[in-house]
């Protein structure tokens, strides 16, 4: 899998050696993960709901639709879980979906608006600080050697 990712150029390595994944790859992966989870949870939701007398979710499509609306936080209300297990599945889908949908929206808006990457800025500052500290140590050694020379002279 890593070989495929490297060859497909889903990321580029910056001057600090950090892998920066392309937004399109990250968005695609987030959608893929979201829909795989939704697909799996739909089966579980249908399983719990089909055992309940008052269930209004009776098909896989209805379960999938319900979880899509739950993940997107729209929640039309045309279908809703009535069993305890179904409510737990819907709650888990809400938290997972809310996180992934929020991630997707952030990535999309970030590519349009161009948010600055604070991680890169922090790495740049750490690099600059390390260079300054090294320079200070070198200057300190030079001053110490000058002090020794002056002590010998006086």
From TrEMBL:
The transmembrane segments are 25-46, 88-115
Concerning InterPro entries, the annotation shows:
K_chnl_dom, VG_K_chnl
Q: Where in the cell is it found?
A: Membrane
Give the superkingdom in one word: Bacteria
Q: Does the keyword Ion transport apply?
A: yes
Membrane topology classification? Multi-pass membrane protein
Where is this protein primarily located?
A: membrane
State what protein this is by name: Potassium channel family protein
Q: Which organism is it from?
A: Thalassotalea psychrophila
* Potassium channel domain sequence ranges: 35-108
Listed A to Z, the keywords are: Ion channel, Ion transport, Membrane, Transmembrane, Transmembrane helix, Transport
Its BP terms in the Gene Ontology are: monoatomic ion transmembrane transport
Keyword Transcription regulation recorded: no
**Which taxonomic lineage does the organism of this UniProt entry have?**
Bacteria, Pseudomonadati, Pseudomonadota, Gammaproteobacteria, Alteromonadales
């Amino acid at each position: 899998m890593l070989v495929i990712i490297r060859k497909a150029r889903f990321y580029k390595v910056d001057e600090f050696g950090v892998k920066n994944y392309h937004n399109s790859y990250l968005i695609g992966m987030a959608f893929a993960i979201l829909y795989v989870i939704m697909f799996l949870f739909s089966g579980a939701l249908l399983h719990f709901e089909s055992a309940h007398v008052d269930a209004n979710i009776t098909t896989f499509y209805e379960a999938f639709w319900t979880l899509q609306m739950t993940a997107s936080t729209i929640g039309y209300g045309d279908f809703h879980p009535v069993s305890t297990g179904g409510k737990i599945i819907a709650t888990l889908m809400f938290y997972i979906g809310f996180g992934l949908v929020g991630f997707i929206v952030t990535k999309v808006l970030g590519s349009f608006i161009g948010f600055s990457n604070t991680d890169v800025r922090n790495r740049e500052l750490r690099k600059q600080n390390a260079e300054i500290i090294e320079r200070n140590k070198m200057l300190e050694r030079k001053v110490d050697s000058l002090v020794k020379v002056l002590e010998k002279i006086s």
